[in-house]
Design brief:
The chain is of the alpha/beta class. The protein has 13 helices and 14 strands. The chain is globular. About 50% of the residues are buried.
């Protein structure tokens, strides 16, 4: 076992996949000599050369479009979008092309590619470097969406994503890159796409979350435990496909559900989880299905007091937990 942060775990996963299969390559802005804006690909250019660690022009549509073509010609591309906020120019390529080629070709063609995108706030990134995009893309059939929260999951999921026959949007919360550390096996392993993980067992309340919010929810759950409330925390990890069985089993056990995400509340991914719970396990509920998300403002502000007001934190989450537990 090695003690790695999330960034190091992703880099190690990419490195191992590139070493194992010469078809794997990385294409993105500044991924070569600079090692990416966050240094995720640092050192890989020296190891694999400029034909496999390829610096792209500042054109996200080109990055994704070229990788779609490459993926359809027996390679396994990893496209890096420098910030998730910049993914909009590639929306057409992802949604209209990559996600639909298997269906439109009746299974004759597929697009085995990964699109890595650092997302989320809390780093003073302001309007164009703080967005959460998961709800938009988790809506698209044919596209898989994952959002790991821990180093172990990040490495296991990036390797599964590279091997997947369909396009995978791999969301990396940038604040977790160096903040979150954990043990990662030196041995080869995978974390299956589509499988949630109960990070903390509990009996009074279920919390469903992902990304940075997992760690805030675990901290809040520990606070409530000291007051006698047992909180179960489920890390969704994979947003599409979604592990509905784990979600429903947890609610059956606790009778209460709180869904926490950093994205804006209205139209956020939490609405899908809430609908599943209401449809399938309504009779088990002892309180209202509750969502906790960011305010419905257009973007995350730069000023620290306003950014703090936008962002969730363990205190805000603990307050929501107490309110729901009191029903």
């Amino acid at each position: 076992m090695s003690e790695l942060n999330v960034l190091e775990a992703i880099r190690q996963g990419i490195d191992e996949m590139m070493a194992a299969d010469e078809r794997v390559f990385v294409f993105g802005e500044d991924v070569g000599k600079r090692g990416g804006v966050f240094r995720v690909t640092e050192g890989l250019l020296d190891k694999y050369g400029p034909l496999r660690i390829i610096d792209a022009p500042l054109a996200e549509s080109v990055i994704v479009g070229a990788c779609i073509g490459a993926a359809m010609n027996d390679t396994l591309p990893i496209a890096e979008i420098q910030f998730a906020d910049f993914i909009a120019p590639a929306f057409n390529q992802i949604v209209q092309e990559a996600a639909r080629i298997r269906y439109r070709s009746n299974g004759d063609w597929n697009v085995p590619m990964v699109i890595r995108a650092p997302y989320g706030g809390g780093i003073h990134g302001a309007l164009y470097h703080s967005q959460s995009i998961e709800a938009t893309f988790a809506h698209i059939p044919g596209l898989k969406v994952v959002a790991p929260s821990t180093p172990y999951d990040a490495k296991g999921l990036i390797k599964s994503a590279v091997e997947d026959a369909d396009p995978v949007l791999f969301l990396e919360h940038k604040k977790t890159y160096r903040l979150i550390k954990g043990s990662v096996p030196a041995s080869d392993y995978r974390v299956p796409i589509g499988l949630a993980d109960v990070k903390r067992s509990g009996s009074d309340l279920s919390v469903f979350t992902y990304g940075l919010m997992l760690h805030y929810c675990l901290e809040a759950a520990q606070t409530l435990e000291r007051a006698g409330t047992s909180v179960e925390v489920v890390d969704l990890r994979s947003l599409r496909p979604l592990d509905t069985a784990t979600i429903l089993d947890s609610v059956r056990k606790t009778g209460k559900a709180l869904i926490v995400h950093e994205d804006n509340l209205t139209g956020g991914f939490g609405g899908e989880v809430a609908a599943l719970i209401a449809e399938h396990v309504f009779e088990y509920l002892d309180g209202p299905i509750t969502r906790l998300g960011a305010p419905d403002v257009p973007a995350m502000p730069y000023a620290k007091p306003l950014e703090d007001a936008f962002m969730l934190n363990p205190l805000k989450i603990a307050t929501a937990m107490r309110t729901l537990a009191a029903y």
